[in-house]
Amino acid sequence: MRTLKFLLRKELLQIFRDPAIFKILFIMPMVQLLILPLAADYEVKNINLGVVDHDRSAYSRKMVDKIISSGYFRLRDYSSTYAQGLKAIEQDKTDLLLEIPTQFERRLIKENESEILISVNAINGVKAGLGAAYIQGILQDYNMEIRMQWIQDLRFNRIPVIQVVPANWYNPNMNYRMFMVPGILVMLVTMIGSSFASNNIVREKEMGTIEQINVSPIKKAQFIVGKLVPFWILAITVLTMGLILARLVYGIIPLGHYVTIYIFATVYLVAILGLGLLLSTYAQTQQQSMLVSFFITMIFNLLSGLYTPIESMPAWAQMITWFNPVSYFIEVMRMVMLKGSGLADIRYHIFAMIGFALFFNGWAILNYRKRSG
Amino acid sequence: METEKVIRVQELTKKFGDFTAVDSISFEVTKGEIFGFLGANGAGKTTAIRMLCGLSLPTSGIASVAGFDVYKQNESIKKNIGYMSQKFSLYEDLTVVENISFYAGIYGLNDNQIREKTGLLLAQLQLEGERKSLVRSLPLGWKQKLAFSIAIVHDPAIVFLDEPTGGVDPITRREFWSMIYAASARGITVFVTTHYMDEAEYCNRVSIMVDGRIEALDSPQNLMSNFEGRSMDDVFLRLARKAQRTS
User: Fold this and answer.
1) What total of structural domains would you count in chain A?
2) What is the per-residue pLDDT across A230-263, written as a single tens digit (0 to 9) for each?
């Protein structure tokens, strides 16, 4: 225990003395947490719309007005021919082209149906898909509206309409920040934890100070724990600052208890830091450890369910997420934040994380050799 | 007690693949002795030292340090030795005092002993004014003297010094050697590698390594008379010219 005390004191002195570590550890994540959630938005806004209106009728104008007033579209091009409209797409001026045929109004009234053409620039698949979906939704609305008008006017019998009313449980306003901000926080804590831990041992290798440790009677486990604890403290501090920021800036208050989050985070960080330490026992230079930990955390983050739902991944990718600690923490964060889950609800997540922690740290201790072969 | 052997080495060998870095060396070192390990760059000095310190596993041969076997009791060896590597290895971002107390602490000294040792070391090295300076800011000669003092802060039975005076000016080297003598007088066995031949003459006994083998082992006086050299320089050149390896 006494040896550990000296190791910890040395580590903390070094961390607090390094101004760069401090900046990276606190300022960088805070800035990211303030900027990323504003930008990483699932809603597609500002879709550039081009219109070719051959009809130029009251109905067609009303329809375009309705589309524009939805707030998702910006009218960027108003051409007289389809070819010109398409050219605007080619020049990247517009993302979506709406062509209204001549006789649109007349056919709508006379034949009770009319067609319009939507051409979508599908280079950005998300934008194209959502844009087309939005416009279809708006047109359906529009369709309903004019029919309702006719019904009232003509005092026809009411046509029964089945309406679907969604109830958004746990996040009633579908506020994407409620699930993005906790997720981004998990990502930040993970990246900071793993890369700092792995760089630290490798730096001792590069400086040659690890030789002096290896030639001393320090035990391997003492050394690993001595590295783990200081970074655990730092990562928990970053997490705390992130949670405070989420509350103050985004008004995100967990429905469950902060305690639940911290209990899980405690185990989670031991696992993630263990992974970082494990990498450092293999890497010889800081460049190597940086690149490898970057590579691994990137895969972890992309397959974590932060950006895309795990359920919609192919089966093999879903298998991988079973072995991805990040996906557990993101799920726990969302469960506690939005659903108010307690310890009992996340017990399997905790068990899995204890497994990860034992696995990574055990491997790190095994692979850290005080004596080379 | 005069002839107590603190290091025994028999046919110790270290191979890296096809390359034999240390080729079946044998020697013994007596307690309190200053034992010099000479050789050109790449002769295998550092590899030999690393095996004795328990940092590198020998390929074959027998060796014991401070009565402990290098294969099985390497962690017990570590409690009884000090080591100063070729590469400067104090923490540059810690102060003089922090370095002393860290190394004293991990070797199990208690708080009183640490305080005592710190005061003593600072006085010996005349570093009282620099106690709160970062080690990074010290001149190389001071760093090396500090590193040596810290390597023996726990009063080990043996201290291994791997080219401790590389790049250090002659005056500081002289001071460094008087520290080595002082340590030896306290009963610490000193195992030192160097390629400064004037330093070789300060040793009680010297072994000269060429291509991983020990070509000669004796007191500097005997070596000079046996090899008909006027100085250790002559002796070394005569032996080292036989080297096949290039460094």
Assistant:
1) 2
2) 999 989 999 999 999 889 988 888 889 999 999 9
Asked if A69 and A34 sit in the same domain, the reply is no
Say yes or no: A132 and A233 in one domain: no
Q: How far apart are CA B6 and CA B30, in angstroms?
A: 6
Distance CA B175, CA B149 (A): 12
User: Contacts of residue B89 in chain A, CB cutoff 8 Å?
Assistant: 207-209, 211-212
ipTM for the whole predicted complex goes beyond 0.95: no
Other C-beta atoms closer than 10 Å to the C-beta of A351 total 10
Domain that holds residue A129: 47-150
Q: Which helix (H) or strand (E) holds B217?
A: strand B213-218
Assigned domain for A164 exists? no
Q: Residues 65-94, chain B: which have Cβ within 8 Å of A? A: 74-75, 78-79, 81, 83, 85, 87-94
Backbone angle region of A176, left / alpha / beta, with phi > 0 → left and psi within -120 to 50 → alpha: alpha
Report whether B183 contacts B190 (CB < 8 A): yes
- Nearest CA to CA, how far is A3 from chain B (Å)? 5
Residue A155 lies in a domain: no
In a domain, A161, yes or no: no
Tokens 């401790």 sit on residue? B164
